[in-house]
Specification:
Number of strands: 10
Order of helices and strands: EHEHEHEHEHEHEHEEHEHHH
Number of helices: 11
Catalytic activity: cytidine(1402) in 16S rRNA + S-adenosyl-L-methionine = 2'-O-methylcytidine(1402) in 16S rRNA + S-adenosyl-L-homocysteine + H(+)
Structural class: alpha/beta
Strand content: 15-25%
Pfam families: TP_methylase (PF00590)
Distance between the termini: 62 Å
Main location: cytoplasm
Keywords: Cytoplasm, Methyltransferase, rRNA processing, S-adenosyl-L-methionine, Transferase
EC number: 2.1.1.198
Shape: elongated
Length: about 290
């Protein structure tokens, strides 16, 4: 599309797509697919199946927009927008930009003062959160954890004391390792929910403590997975024993903090004198209190 000085900027539309059941497609999705000048899809084959299910034929140009070509294709789509085009961005499931392609294009469009809007749709994050039975008033979405074990543990230690409910995406073949790592860092008794195949025929929500869920997942799990984990419990000073103090210091040290800094931070969050935390660490080192 040729960009001219008189061209009014177009509009970038982020469209949520079904996460399982095509009947969940928002009514506006079909209209946007039919009318857009350009449809940028994470997988054009899956887009074709979606449009056939919705009974709609895009009149505009259909292009691929996925992790492998996102950087190269973004300037092309921005040029279309600057030329007045209405560009619709869809991913395989859920809302673009949420652990899917989209952020790069949105940022580039915003930088050029292009209007960005959305067609709200199904969300695995919110659906899993609502079904989990865990607190929903405050939560954090952490996306996918790193594949390497050491990096995964490090990322989990960063949020070990986070009190908000945590939401993760995970591949089924890594679920058992992830749940075992969560049990190691958060404590095996921490409550969680594994949400599998949401809105699909074999939807399942398995709830329980992390160690129990890890044993279940070790038997093999299939499908799209969302994991919801309760936040760290809020403890008063009288509830925190030496073992827990030592565990918190250890978590911070393993995340890269120096011992002195870790002790000070744990003391502050526990409302205790630094000396008390220091004494617990020394006692553990000499065979007294051991990390949980």
């Amino acid at each position: 599309m040729t960009v001219t000085p008189d061209s009014a900027p177009g509009t970038l539309v982020l469209a949520g797509t079904p996460i399982g059941d095509v009947a969940d497609a928002p009514p506006r999705l079909a209209a946007e697919l039919a009318d857009a000048d350009v449809v940028a899809a994470e997988d054009t084959r899956r887009l074709r199946r979606l449009t056939q299910a919705l009974g709609v034929t895009p009149r505009g140009r259909v292009v691929s927009y996925f992790e492998g070509n996102e950087a190269a294709r973004t300037p092309e789509l921005v040029d279309e927008l600057l030329g007045g085009a209405r560009v619709l961005l869809v991913t395989d499931a859920g809302m673009p930009s949420v652990s899917d392609p989209g952020y790069r294009l949105v940022a580039a469009a915003v930088e050029k003062d292009v209007r960005v809007t959305a067609v709200p749709g199904p969300s695995a994050v919110l659906t899993a959160l609502a079904l989990s039975g865990l607190p929903v008033d405050r939560f954090c979405f952490e996306g996918f954890l790193p594949r390497k074990a050491g990096e995964r543990l490090s990322r989990l230690r960063e949020v070990a004391e986070e009190r908000r409910t945590l939401v993760y995406f995970e591949a089924p073949h890594r679920l058992d390792d992830t749940l075992a790592a969560m049990a190691e860092v958060f404590g095996g008794e921490r409550r969680a929910a594994v949400c599998r195949e949401l809105t699909k025929t074999y939807e399942e929500v398995r709830r329980g403590p992390l160690d129990e869920l890890a044993r279940w997942a070790a038997e093999g799990v299939r499908g799209e997975i969302t994991v919801v984990v309760s936040g760290a419990p809020e403890r008063g000073p009288e509830e925190i024993g030496p073992e827990e103090l030592v565990r918190r210091v250890r978590v911070r040290e393993e995340a890269g903090e120096r011992r002195k800094e870790a002790i000070a931070a744990v003391a502050a969050e526990a409302g205790l004198p630094k000396r008390e935390v220091f004494d617990a660490v020394v006692a553990a080192k000499h065979g007294g209190a051991q990390p949980a």
